[in-house]
Amino acid sequence: MSVNYGSKRIVVGAHYGLRDWLSQRITGGLMALFTIVLLAQLIFTRGPIGYDLWAGIFAAQWMKVLTFSVIVALLYHVWVGMRDVWMDYVQPVGIRLVLQIFTIVWLVGCAGWAIQVLWKI
Description:
By secondary structure, the protein is mainly alpha-helical. Helix content is 77%, strand content 0%. It is built from 4 helices and no strands. Helix 1 runs antiparallel to helix 3 (61-89) and helix 3 (61-89) packs antiparallel against helix 4 (93-120). The longest helix has 29 residues, at 61-89. The model has no long low-confidence stretch (mean pLDDT 88).
């Protein structure tokens, strides 16, 4: 039996709470900023929206860097969310581990594909 006296208390768990909450807000903010920048470029561009326009938007080095940062932020954002879902709702440890490994492999594959698409333009 554990007894707490005074200001000392026994804390258990991984203590991810604040870090994960903050990372979700920061990555979400970066993705929102990217969306605003992309929409602004589309709104203030004249002419038809086609492949040439999209290629032109992503041809600039600063846009490639911003897009790469957003891809990394998106991957981390998804990882934190999915990890929390698996930890909260999947009780058998083996199944949870398989789902987490699948999520990591899937996210790495998505990152590779997104970066390949980005640098082909």
